[in-house]
Amino acid sequence: MAQAWPKAKPKLTQEAFDEAVTTNIEDFDMSREEAITSAVEDHPIAVASQGLRDACSGQGGLTEALEALYSSLQASTVEAAAGTSGSSAAAAVPVSLSQEAYVIAHKGGAMQSLLEACKQLHNQTEQLLQVLRLLQLLLGWLETRDAFTEVQGVEVIHDVLKCETNGPEVKTAAAEVAEAAAKQVEEAKCRLVDSGVAVTLLSLLSDPSSPPPLLGAACGVLRAVTTADDERPPSSRAFVHARLLAGSQHGAIRVLLGVLRRLPAEQEPATVCKLLGTVRQIAANEEICREFTDDGGVVSCLQVLRGSAGRRDVVRSCLSALRQLAHSDGVKRLLAEAGAVGDAVRVTALHEGADDVAEAALGLLGNMVLRHPENATLCAEAGVPDMLVEVMRRHPGRAPVQRQACLLTRLMAARNPELRPGLLERGLEPLLRAAKAAHPNSCKDVGSAALRDLGLDNYND
Are strands 96-97 and 77-79 parallel, antiparallel or unpaired? Predict the structure, then answer.
């Protein structure tokens, strides 16, 4: 008969643990680490972690052990997500744990035991899903993420992704674990690419039968491995990963474009946003941007932008992806010919209170105008000067918006002297000076440059 592991007694037990830690620090002059180590033995997370280790060794039932660990972790949440009540195997896990809970679970070997459970739970979907969701929860702490690669976590997750008997829900959860492990951990990013996880996910993205949640989760991993967000190592391989995945051997840009074309943005906006975010990260150089453009990617992005103009999240994602692509001179020309300037003006007006949309639109237009004065003329004809005034007046406290407005003003005025009178007549000078004063760290340099290129002598005032 399988052993039934005891459920945690949430608040009293956690309060008792906290009190024990405080007592150890205050009465016995322990450091916080020593106090936690001393108090950890009887904590329900420690008991449940030991129970899971025993169950993985054949001493007890995995189902009961997983339920006990879920219950003990749920009792130590910092913030609860909707739908976290109860402890069924398929229930969503809490958003995050207290610091003590992460430490206790880590020291108790919970992550290693969960990875071992992954290996033992083939064809047991509900239990495997709970294991993967608990893993994702434990990876909310940097030290746990650092340890993930050391205990072969990437390899275990890769096996789950490759297993043909695992359905889309399990593979989605496995991809979400991989994305969580890669957050701010360069080693995990490198391992996910070097071990072939990223390529496996590209294969899943290429499969027309993959459902939207799996597509979004796969995109999340690809975006993570091409994002340099770990400041600890001296360098990042994010750019190398982008070039590798976009290369002819793996064809990430072609794969992503195929998904973009077959995925209806109006029905799956969240997945489309993840996809566009991944395009933005992988389009890391001129060659990749050109490939995306040559395959019709820019036109496809504009179609999504126009078809989902009322959705702020999709609009922001489209503008951000196009902004990155517009670093390429070829893309600048194509965007201008396709009417992107007018699109940017329209969606900014449609979402007049959205500073993120305004910032992304200004950034896109700035990249289009850079080194292309003919696009500055297009901007003037499409109403961009009025848009600049409106955006700067509407978002005076948003430094990113003000900075992009200063930059775009400068770019329009620098090589197009005929546009300067119109820009000044609309009242941009006092707005530029206000931006410099309100946001000196972000806008002093670009604001002064804009005033100078507008022909004003006192641009440093």
Answer: antiparallel
Question: pLDDT for 406-418, tens place per residue?
Answer: 999 999 999 999 9
DSSP secondary structure code for residue 42 in this structure: G
pLDDT of residue 9: 37
Q: Residue 77: in which H helix or E strand, if any?
A: strand 77-79
Closest CA to 136 of 168, 186, 190, 172: 172
Instruction: Examine the pLDDT at 3 and tell me if it is beyond 60.
Output: no
Higher-confidence residue of 412 and 290: namely 412
**What letters, b where the CB count within 10 A reaches 16 and e where it falls short, cover 279-304?**
bbbbbbeeebbbbbbebebbebbbbb
Residue given tokens 């893993």 in the structure block: 135
Is the overall model pTM greater than 0.70, yes or no?
A: yes
- The mean per-residue pLDDT over the stretch 376-393 comes to 98
What CA–CA distance (Å, rounded) separates 294 from 250?
17
**Could you give the CA distance from residue 413 to residue 426 in angstroms, rounded to a whole number?**
14
Q: Please check whether residue 204 is in contact with residue 194, taking contact to mean a CB–CB distance below 8 angstroms.
A: no
Per DSSP, 165 falls in state: T
Give the dihedral sign, CA 385/388/393/394: positive
Residues forming beta bridges with residue 96, ordered by sequence position:
79
More confident residue, 18 or 401: 401
CA 261 → CA 37, 247, 289, 292, 306, distances in Å? 54, 20, 17, 13, 14
Residue-level pLDDT at 281: 96
- What is the C-alpha separation between 196 and 256, in angstroms, rounded? 18
User: Residue 152: left if φ>0, alpha if ψ -120 to 50, beta else—which one?
Assistant: left
| DSSP letter for each residue of 280-318 | HHH--SHHHHHHHHHTTHHHHHHHHHHHTTT-HHHHHHH
Chain centroid to CA 159: 24
**How would residue 43 be classed by pLDDT, with cut points 50, 70 and 90?**
confident
pLDDT of 11 strictly over 50: no
